[in-house]
Amino acid sequence: MKKIVVFTGAGVSAESGIKTFRDSGGLWEEYRIEDVATPTAWLNNPKLVLDFYNARRKQVMEAQPNAAHIALAELAKKYDVQIITQNIDDLHERAGSKKVLHLHGEIMKARSTKNTDLVYNLKTWEIRFGDKCEEESQLRPHIVWFGEAVPNMEKAYLQTAKADVFVVIGTSLNVYPAADLVAAVPENCELYYIDPSPNVKFEGPHFNLIKKTASEGVQELVKKLM
Ligand code: APR
What we know:
With about 230 residues, the chain is an alpha/beta fold.
C-alpha cells in the first residue's frame, strides 16, 4: 500500500475557525511568544500562560473538523496515511484519522510540571492555577513551548523516510526543528504543498504546488492521487 505522509500546520484548521499564527490577524500579532509560549513565561506568569491556553482549548472544543480534515481521514481507506501535525488541536482525530503524530503537543491534555510521564486527558476547557497532578505538582498544558525539545521529532523522521508521497498543508515552515522534516523527504517521493500563500519555494521534478485553501487543495490532491 502506498504510504502518504501528510505534514500539517495551522492552515489546515483555518477553515474550522482556528486562527493561524503568522498570517495577518494571526495569534502572534495579538500575543508575544515570550509572554505565553516559553518556559520562562511559565515561570514568570503561569496564570497568563494558563489563560492563553484555556482560551485556545475553548476555541478548539467549539470548532469542528473541516472538509480537509475529513478528506484526509477518508484517504486512509485507500492508502497508508500518516499525519504529522504541528497543530495542538484534535481535529484530525475527530475527523477520523487514526495515525496522528503531534509535534507541538496536544491542547486537550495536561501534564505534571515535574513528572513528564503524568499526562491527563482533559474533559473541560480549563486548567486552573492550583490544579495538581496525582503527585501534587501543578498541571501545565501538554504543549511543546519555544525553547523546549520536540520529543516526537525522531518518530516523524522515521515516518518521513518511508513516504511515497509527502504532502505539506497550511504551514509557513518557519518553526524548527519541525520545518526540517521537508529536507528528510526521500529523493523520489512525490511532494505536494497545499497553501494559498506558500512561504517556501520547492523545486524539482517531483514537486507540485497547489495554491489553494486546505479544503479545496485536498480535494484536488485526492483527484490527482486516484
Ligand atoms: N488553508 C491552507 N493554508 C492556509 C489557510 C487555509 N485556509 N489559511 C492560511 N493558510 C496558511 C498560510 O498561508 C501560512 O502559510 O497557513 C500557514 C500558517 O502559517 P503559520 O501561522 O506560521 O502556522 P504554522 O506554520 O502552523 O506555525 C508553526 O508555530 O507558533 C508556532 O507552535 C506554533 O505549531 C505552530 C508553529
